[in-house]
Amino acid sequence: MPSEGIRNAAVIATDAVQAQIHITVRGRTVRIHLVGTLDRDGATRLIQAANRALVGGRCLVVLDASRLGHLDYRCVSMLVRWSRGLASFRHRLVLEHWSPYLRAILAMEDWDGELERGARGPGWRPVLVPTMHVQVP
After folding, report:
1. Do 32 and 43 contact (CB within 8 A), yes or no?
2. Do 94 and 83 contact (CB within 8 A), yes or no?
3. Which of 30, 31, 96, 34 is nearest to 58 (CA)?
4. For the segment 73-89, what is each residue's pLDDT rounded down to a tens digit?
5. Complete domains list, the chain, with CATH
């Protein structure tokens, strides 16, 4: 049964690299630092912990991925739903320090770019530059 050994090894590897979530609250700004690998269980823990930290309305929620190594694409839809829920309470989700690798994972599931709308600085989707037309003699 080689397939069972492979499955068990994958589960052990996933458990060993769970994301660490550090939340800092200053006034109406809730800064969430992500470290490691964010999977669906980690995203669930992130959302629950962040919701407990949100007090009142109109909070700025900053999701800092400067130390995040990998993001499971299956939790992008969870983050999008959470962002919509935050917006219904007049909170705003902002992404900071997301590497091009992590941005590409976000783009796979977030086709409309809902998560990038609150991003500071230039958007993380590549800007399409029109190709130059060269006349060949």
Report:
1. no
2. no
3. 30
4. 999 999 999 999 999 99
5. 17-118 (3.30.750.24)
